């Protein structure tokens, strides 16, 4: 009987898994011994990291999108029919249309979502760049900005862990190029007692902030925003005035994970080396959907997807496990509009950001163009 692989989620993680499996299991799919099916929410695939560039006019909106059908291997049936309930006990997924898909192996790659509505006043008073509408509104706000106090407010959890630092440095360069930096003040807030969750990254950021005159407020867990008074207040009792509030909204997992009782906050408990759902032998978790204490980033999803591809292929072809995931993450870090650095780390090796350079910035821009090859699993 044919082995059925079902992938829930049509973002980067799910797409890489599907495309990689098609190459590794080409013969089995051609003979009918293996089938791969994907359930998604949209006919469009978006390059989410590109949203960071939209507010600064450094990327066009059209560059962010391609039809999902052109990114995904043609052998994979793709259904725009979001999963409504995942029944891991009976190995079945029910969609919003009422259809049910059974499986032998399931890959859950449903991603994360922003929840600015979880903080009172944030929707009305804040700007962000984590979706296209937010990035557009922030672009308009920056175009109109003529100086004043900017609060760059970070909430956790969130995806792309270096993005708050990137937007801060890019903002500084943008204000300088616009000629309003001298009459502007940037204050960066973070929920814990340093500038980033990863201690080496936080230590690297301190002198960079000092060099650029960026202020910071740590132990700032956002309580609420007052759009009328233009203030943001923390649970610790600190209130900051602002003329422009740029926020990294808190994120949660998708509703289907909550409705299926698969994990608190929409994050599925995941075994860190196998990427199997804890207690499962046939359910893999990939990308933002995991509860692993590592970065929710595109590179994380890519390295996890590669591991899942190898293991599913090995299980189907040889009945054995292939390898473990070592927690590898690699992130380019924009340190302005024209310079960048990078961090890489895994479960045992901490990150060590190097000096910013224009060359690394160019590498990041090159990767922006190569993303579509990555999504197709060719990089």
Automatic annotation (TrEMBL):
Residue intervals of the FAD/NAD(P)-binding domain: 4-143
InterPro entries membership: FAD/NAD-bd_sf, FAD/NAD-binding_dom, SQRD
Gene Ontology MF term list: oxidoreductase activity
Protein name: NAD(P)/FAD-dependent oxidoreductase
